[in-house]
Write a structure and sequence with these properties.
Helix content is 63%, strand content 0%. By secondary structure, the protein is mostly helical.
Length: 82
């Protein structure tokens, strides 16, 4: 995981992993928002905000961080080859 790898092609397994994290976070956020009235009877408003915010942040961060992994065996074009 390196900063310079952000613009390199992401390996398939890391794309799948990042997409799975994003889908899970989106699913959790959606369920909490849809069932908000029922959940606020069980949890406090602050806890629900933390659930929604945490799921959103983890989903986006997981997808974003997966872009930093690159397959070193794939040659990347240089500026002259573009």
């Amino acid at each position: 995981m390196k900063l310079k790898n952000y613009y390199k092609p992401t390996p398939k397994k890391w794309r799948k992993f990042g997409d799975a994290i994003l889908v899970t976070g989106t699913f959790i956020t959606g369920i909490v928002l849809v069932e908000f009235d029922k959940l606020k009877e069980v949890y406090s408003i602050e806890m629900l905000r933390c659930m929604i915010g945490g799921a959103m942040v983890l989903g986006v961060a997981g997808k974003f961080l997966s872009n930093f992994f690159a397959d070193d065996t794939v040659p990347t074009p240089t500026d002259n080859e573009k």
